[in-house]
Amino acid sequence: MQQLIEFEGQPIKAMQGRKVKEEMRMKLFQEFKSKFSGLDKALNEMGTFRKLRELKVDLGDGANQLSVTVDKDRAETGKYQLEVDQLASRTSLMTNGVEDPNETIFGPGTIRIEQENGETTVINVSDSESSLRGISSLINSESKSPIRASVIKDASQPNAPYRLVMTAKGEGASNQVLPPEFSFEGAGEINVEDQHDAQNATLSLDGFEISAENNDINDFLPGVNLHLKQAMPGHTITLNISEDYQKISAKVKTVVEQLNQVLSFIVKQNTVDEKSDTSTTFAGDISLHSIEFQLRNAIHEGYIAGDPEDSNAKVIHLTELGIEFDRAGSLSFKEDKFNKFLEKNFTEIGQAISGDDGLANRLKGVLDSYTRIGSGILSIKEQGIRQRIKQIDEQIENKTRLVEAKRQQIIDQFSKLESSLGNLQRQQQQLSASLGGGGGGTVAQLLGG
After folding, report:
1. Are 120 and 172 in the same domain?
2. Does residue 350 surpass a pLDDT of 60?
3. What separation in angstroms does the CA of 392 have from each of 16, 18, 23, 163?
4. How many domains is the chain partitioned into structurally?
């Protein structure tokens, strides 16, 4: 019975074997897709001239006075002379001192805070909050308050060392805060004894004086942001914004590395011998041959640098830039050669690599035709593998139901056979008993006993 059931299940094992092979092909396919994804990501980093371009900032000995960030999509290269004469500052105020900062000596009342721009904030103070620390806490908890407050201890005034220091939240003259008006009903008095007014930052650009409301100056130049850190009147800083050839070269190198991964995968798939199991690989797959041909052809082509309509437009071949195939068929990148050419001909190389008809867009066109969702060749191939796995699962499910039914049928038949044999054996025993032992041998022979 067990042998019969196992025999019925043999087709399921064969289907499971086919499924394993399709799953191995799917895993291999996903690996190939990941390499395409890596190449596509690298190409996106240099798909346009602005994306390819990287900028660097050199401040010489001015790094202690300011820092600079640039938006490479908007900033332009250039050299500028800067001088930081004055940093922007905030209004700061300090009150008289009290002996105990926690004692509620001021009583209930109000704090009125006015700014020079006309905005006013009024804070109500209850009797239980009328200590120096209570007032500080109320000012800080008021979201509309233009100042922050803190209680400090001034050891120079031992009899009343605790003072309230208030600092404006915003820098620059436009955020100037007037001394607050304290109005309380208690015995204690609180007054502003010292203050420092807010001021704008002042600096010069190529000899022209400029005023800024704060020390973080966005778009000081288009795409160039400054953070002023230290004033040093009379000290000139040279700000030099230039192309970062090392980073640009690194992007091209990444594309070469990603291309090699794709090509290496294809070569490996097509390298077979008598021991290779081609049912689990893509050996001989025509689409892989086509991809390899188009990628290699894109590397061998020349790319226009200049106006395509101009008969004198220059054509650049990647071998001139140090990008070429070695004897093993892998793509090599001679970085030193590329950098030297880049420093002399950045605009031309930028167009040859990232122009509308440049290398990056040519390679992306190849990738898109294969990876496009729904209609791309690789997308269709993936759908085919998934469909076959789904069909095998359905076949296994259907066959499993049939085998289970057959198993139950065999079990039922065996049970009936056992029951029939049991009845015959009982009849033999009864017949033998009724004959007194005679004729038992004949009956046993008939029953196979």
Report:
1. yes
2. yes
3. 8, 8, 11, 82
4. 3
Give the other-Cβ count within 10 Å of 350's Cβ: 21
Same domain, 137 and 109: yes
Sort residue 139 into left (φ over 0), alpha (ψ -120 to 50) or beta: alpha
Among candidate residues 192, 182, 168, the one with its CA nearest the CA of residue 116: 168
Question: Which two structure tokens, joined as six digits, stand for 36?
Answer: 């395409």
Query: How many Å apart are CA 296 and CA 8, to the nearest integer?
Result: 52
Name the residue among 216, 254, 218, 222 with its Cα closest to residue 73.
Answer: 222
pLDDT of residue 281: 64
Place of tokens 């909050």: 129
Q: How far apart are CA 189 and CA 449, in angstroms?
A: 124
Domain boundary among 340, 357, 380: 380
For residue 71, give the H/E element and its range: none
Examine residue 449 and state whether it is found in any structural domain, yes or no.
Answer: no
Out of 341, 356, 380, pick the residue that ends a domain. Answer: 380
Q: What is the pLDDT of residues 243-289, one digit of tens each?
A: 999 999 999 999 999 999 888 888 877 766 666 666 666 666 777 78
Note whether residue 372 is domain-resident.
yes
Q: How far apart are CA 41 and CA 39, in angstroms?
A: 5
Q: 137: which 2 tokens? A: 């806490």
**Which phi and psi (to 5°) does residue 309 adopt?**
-80, -10
Q: Extract the tokens encoding 210.
A: 């400029």
Residue 111 lies in a domain: yes
Q: Where are the beta strands (DSSP E) in 306-425?
A: 314-317, 323-325, 331-333
Which CATH number belongs to the domain containing residue 192 in this structure?
A: 2.60.40
Q: What are the pLDDT digits (tens) for 279-332?
A: 666 666 777 788 888 889 999 999 988 766 776 778 899 999 999 998 888 899
- Residue 303 CB-half CA count within 13 A: 25
In this structure, the answer to whether residues 293 and 150 fall within a common structural domain is no
Q: Is residue 73 part of a domain?
A: yes
3-state helix, strand, coil in the chain (%, to 5): 45, 25, 30
Arithmetic mean of pLDDT, 122-140: 96
| 258 and 163 inside one domain | no
Pairing mode, strands 224-228 and 237-243: unpaired
**In angstroms, rounded to a whole number, what is the distance separating the alpha carbons of residues 86 and 234?**
11
Q: What band does 442 get if pLDDT is binned at 50, 70 and 90?
A: low
CA-nearest of 243, 236, 202 to 61 is: 236
Q: Which of 56, 62, 61 is nearest to 75 (CA)?
A: 56
Segments forming the whole domain that contains residue 299 = 2-50+245-380
Contact predicate 122/110, CB 8 Å: yes
